[in-house]
Design goal:
Blueprint: H1 2-5, H2 8-13, H3 34-43, H4 46-50, H5 53-67, E1 71-73, H6 80-85, E2 89-92, E3 96-99, H7 116-133, E4 139-145, H8 147-156, H9 164-172, H10 174-198, E5 202-207, H11 215-236, E6 242-246, H12 253-260, E7 264-266, H13 273-280, E8 286-290, H14 292-297, H15 299-313, E9 318-322, H16 332-343
The structure holds coproporphyrinogen III.
Coproporphyrinogen III binds next to strand 3.
């Protein structure tokens, strides 16, 4: 255990202020890397890649070989849970994920919690392999989507601009919608516990679309399910670090931090840095928050913003990251420059 605690990412998560902050990047494995595109082509489609432990291990390791991040994030997707629950899912070229939508409580019978591990077993095997193959100072992060964000895809059937169907559901039948959230809370706890048992040292919950919820609904559908998941995980693993990422929620991140029990919180690009240093970082370690588009632009614009982030948040417990995932058009050499600046070499 003491050897584990020496890993830079775990030190930051336990509240230590590091001379050089640990770093990793959301969506650090992916299409911006030519070697990813090659492995993905070998796998067939994206889901086949997620369920192939050998190839999923390989793509998880690819960014580490180039850039030496302090964390490896399991290669998988937040939509594997709905898929494992029995909802048909496909990733269409140029369109993103497409699911056969569920729009009412009467349709929840299509989902079966008792069978999820049959589908998800290869993911646990990927975690087990990674726990043996990552560099010794590197921390293995498992993850899941938070119930609200996963539900947006399950109900809308794809990425959405206005969230019309899911909002219609939460406002007209909150009790029925909470039955869907209950299923997701349960599935997510089980899924993450299996990842931890296979060797994940930290877990992150992605609530990418938390910011579309008005205040009181954010409490109901983001804070409360997250709190229940943290509680369920800690019942078995009291010291497990959990990173929350409620994207786009502004000042409501304070309630999220105080009420969910997360160990640390990931900040989106819009979060004011001085405010975050004073108000958020005084409560929990923070992670973030470079705009992924600055990683596309590179050059002086990127370097200046990295310096500002390090200056402002580097004074407290901090993990350098993006404020959202890497985009496919990111030039790999800009990621190399970022790594050089953070690691000071
Ligand atoms: O961070 C990593 O390197 C680990 C892997 C990871 C993926 N997705 C792989 C992926 C993680 C942590 C995710 C999280 C995820 N997936 C989120 C939350 C974070 C965020 O970025 O908002 C969401 C909302 C999803 C759902 C999802 N998966 C969408 C909307 C898409 C299509 C958009 C896109 O980027 O293609 C995916 C597909 C996906 N997930 C890809 C990857 C590498 C691209 C698939 C491909 O190879 O074509």
């Amino acid at each position: 255990m003491s050897a584990l605690k020496n890993k830079p990412l775990l030190k930051s998560l336990s509240g230590e202020k590091m001379e050089r902050p640990p770093f990793w990047l959301m969506r650090q494995a992916g299409r911006y890397l030519p070697e990813y595109r090659e492995t993905r082509a070998k796998a067939g489609n994206f889901l086949d890649l997620c369920y192939n432990p050998e190839l999923a291990e390989e793509v998880t390791l690819q960014p580490l070989r180039r850039y030496g991040m302090d964390a490896a994030i399991l290669f998988a997707d937040i939509l594997l849970i709905p898929h494992a629950l029995g909802q048909p899912l496909a990733y269409k070229e140029g369109e993103g994920p497409v699911l056969d939508p569920i729009r009412a409580a009467t349709e929840l019978g299509r989902l079966d919690l008792s069978v999820i591990h049959k589908t998800l077993d290869p993911v646990y095997e990927t975690v087990a392999r990674l726990s043996q193959s990552i560099p010794k100072d590197c921390t293995l992060i498992g993850f899941a989507g938070a119930p609200w964000t996963v539900a947006t895809y399950m109900v809308e059937g794809r990425g959405s601009k206005d969230y019309a169907n899911i909002k219609q559901w939460i406002y007209s039948d909150p009790a029925g919608f909470s039955a869907l959230i209950d299923i997701l809370v349960e599935a997510t706890i089980e899924y993450l516990l299996k990842q931890v048992e296979a060797g994940a040292e930290v877990v992150q919950l992605f609530d990418t679309w938390a910011g579309v919820l008005p205040d009181d609904e954010f409490r109901k559908w983001s804070i409360e399910p997250t709190r229940r998941i943290v509680e369920g995980l800690r019942a078995k693993h009291p010291d497990l670090p959990v990173i929350g990422f409620p994207k786009g929620v502004g000042g409501n991140i304070m309630a999220f931090v105080k009420e969910t029990g997360v160990t640390a919180v990931s900040l989106d690009p819009g979060t004011p840095l001085d405010w975050a240093a004073q108000e958020v970082q005084s409560l929990v370690p923070v992670q973030g928050n470079l705009d992924p588009m600055l990683l596309v632009t590179g050059g002086v614009a990127m370097e200046k913003r990295i310096a500002t982030i390090l200056e402002t948040l580097g004074k407290g417990p901090f993990i350098f990251n993006l404020g959202h995932g890497i985009v496919p058009q990111t030039p790999p050499e800009n990621v190399a420059r970022l790594s050089e600046l953070i690691r000071g070499k």
